[in-house]
Amino acid sequence: MKLLQVDFEYHGPMGEEMSKALVELAESINQEPGLVWKIWTESESEKLGGGIYLFEDEVSAQNYLQMHSARLKQMGVLEVRGIIFDINQPLTSINRGPIES
């Protein structure tokens, strides 16, 4: 399992408006190879959008990051920050993280 953290400058709709506007995108993300789940992140005060993703393996996470970065750049996002992390499953389990061992 690999965790992908992505964030970028975002001035679009947030909150309920974002939820309504991006339903199709959210549904399409479920079809990405290796995706287990995604948590959507937003910060109106910092003008940031992004997400935390769990992928089955590093190749899937890297492929998604490459595709998503290109998609965001086509939408006018200049800089996409993406980091792929290993997960410490024993400690995550202690803190009830949504990770299956």
Any overview of this molecule?
GO terms for molecular function: monooxygenase activity. By secondary structure, the protein is of the alpha+beta class. It has a single domain, classed as Alpha-Beta Plaits (2-Layer Sandwich). The protein is built from 4 helices and 4 strands. The chain has a 4-stranded antiparallel beta sheet with strand order 2-3-1-4, covered by helices on one side.
Nutshell version of this structure?
Keywords: Monooxygenase, Oxidoreductase. With 101 residues, this protein is an alpha+beta fold.
Order of helices and strands: EHHEEHEH
* Rg calc: 14 Å
- Return the CATH architecture: 2-Layer Sandwich
CATH C-level class: Alpha Beta
CATH topology: Alpha-Beta Plaits
The portion of residues forming beta strands comes to 25-35%
Key phrases:
oxidoreductase; Dimeric_a/b-barrel; 4 helices; monooxygenase activity; alpha+beta; Protein ydhR; monooxygenase; 101 residues; Alpha-Beta Plaits; 4-stranded antiparallel β-sheet
Q: What is the element layout, followed by pairings?
A:
Blueprint: E1 2-9, H1 15-21, H2 23-29, E2 35-43, E3 48-55, H3 58-74, E4 80-85, H4 89-94
Antiparallel strand pairs: 1-3, 1-4, 2-3
InterPro entries: Dimeric_a/b-barrel, YdhR
Protein name: Protein ydhR
Organism: Vibrio orientalis CIP 102891 = ATCC 33934
